[in-house]
Design brief:
One of its GO terms (cellular component) is post-mRNA release spliceosomal complex. The protein has helices spanning 2-5, 22-26, 134-142, 144-177, 179-211, 223-233, 240-253, 259-262, 264-276, 293-317; strands spanning 43-48, 53-55, 61-62, 67-78, 81-89, 96-102, 107-112, 114-116. By secondary structure, the chain is an alpha+beta fold. Among the domains are: 1-36, no CATH class; 41-118, no CATH class; 135-176. The strands form 2 sheets. It has a 5-stranded antiparallel beta sheet, with no helix packed on it. Strands 3-2-8 form a 3-stranded antiparallel beta sheet, with no helix packed on it. Helix 9 (264-276) crosses helix 10 (293-317). The longest helix has 34 residues, at 144-177. The chain is flat. The protein starts with a helix and ends with a helix. It binds zinc ion (ZN). Zinc ion binds next to loops.
Length: 318
């Protein structure tokens, strides 16, 4: 449509034919917005999908004959024939589809963004019903002998197919003879499904109500879900960091010495007893530490241990 705008009959009042045509005078391209990328060697044309494809972006089927605004560029030559490439955006997603002409095979080739639906078989090979070609129908109209032969061939094909058709019809009749039974079976199956759907709907609604107003479509519950949920209840109540902190606190709270010694009253009593048995108080001179350090230390340690034992038994009796 764009190109038609350049050929209208309106000439502005200040138009000067000496400057060239109307487009030159207006500074526009004859193809208008379809030529907006002409400086890149691209023009925008209407491209019609030559066969059925699947889009790589959305996996949708795009039928033969769907039209796109495509960017057309020349990408090469096949002998003296130019090869053109077309780039278009899928109308269902953001994927770009690129196709180019294939003059050698009189076909189009997909460069990227799509897959071709392969149905290039000969329908006669798998006994499909194929409409007569134009040539055959023309010959049938002109040539009486050819028509007779053709009709004979058609009759032969019908006779050959008759027993098979009879079998198929019998089978269909057999299947639909007990229509009451078939109806009952279908309704029973549907009833079970409906009950199940209703129950699941109620369960889902209860779950969503507990979640506090979530609006979701819940997937059906599976055995795997139940197993995972059971495992979650066995999960540790605290993290590794929390456990470490708890251990540190426990160590800090634990007394560095025995419980009898840290007990404040027991400690005081022990100090009194040690003061009462001071060597100076008993008039015994303290031995020099350098002469018999090991002996004195061992004797003092045994004395201390007996004192501790005495103190603890004393405190327990209290
Ligand atoms: Zn797509």
């Amino acid at each position: 449509m764009g190109e038609r705008k350049g050929t209208n009959k309106y000439y502005p009042p200040d138009y000067n034919p000496n400057k060239g045509g109307l487009n030159k005078f207006l500074g526009t391209h004859a193809l208008r917005e379809r030529a907006r990328k002409i400086h890149l060697g691209i023009i925008i044309i209407r491209f019609e999908m030559p066969y059925n494809i699947w889009c790589d972006g959305c996996n949708n089927h795009i039928g033969m004959g769907v039209r796109y605004n495509a960017e057309k560029t020349k990408v090469g030559m096949y002998h003296s024939t130019p090869v053109y490439q077309f780039k278009m955006k899928c109308h269902l997603c953001d994927n770009y589809i690129q196709m180019k002409t294939d003059p050698g095979n009189l076909d189009y080739e997909i460069v990227s963004g799509a897959r071709r639906q392969e149905n290039r078989w000969d329908p006669l090979q798998n006994e499909q019903v194929v409409p007569e070609t134009k040539e055959t129908s023309r010959r049938m109209a002109d040539d009486a002998m050819f028509r007779l032969e053709h009709q004979g061939k058609d009759q032969g094909a019908a006779d050959a197919a008759a027993p098979r058709l009879r079998l198929l019809m019998d089978r269909a009749e057999e299947k639909w003879k007990d229509d009451y039974g078939a109806n009952c079976a279908l309704r029973a199956e549907m009833r079970a499904r409906r009950t199940d759907l209703k129950r699941r709907g109620a369960d889902d609604a209860a779950l969503l109500a507990r979640s506090g107003g979530l609006q979701l479509d819940l997937a059906p519950e599976t055995e795997e879900d139940r197993r995972l949920a059971r495992l979650l209840t066995l999960a540790p109540r605290e993290t590794g960091a929390e456990r470490l902190l708890r251990t540190v606190r426990a160590i800090e709270a634990k007394p560095a010495l025995d419980s009898a010694l840290t007990d404040a009253t027991a400690l005081r009593r022990l100090e009194d007893k040690v003061a009462a048995h001071k060597p100076l108080a008993l008039g015994i001179k303290r031995a020099k530490p350098s002469s018999s350090a090991t002996a004195s230390s061992s004797s003092s340690s045994t004395a201390l241990s007996t004192l501790v034992a005495y103190g603890s038994s004393d405190s327990s009796s209290d």
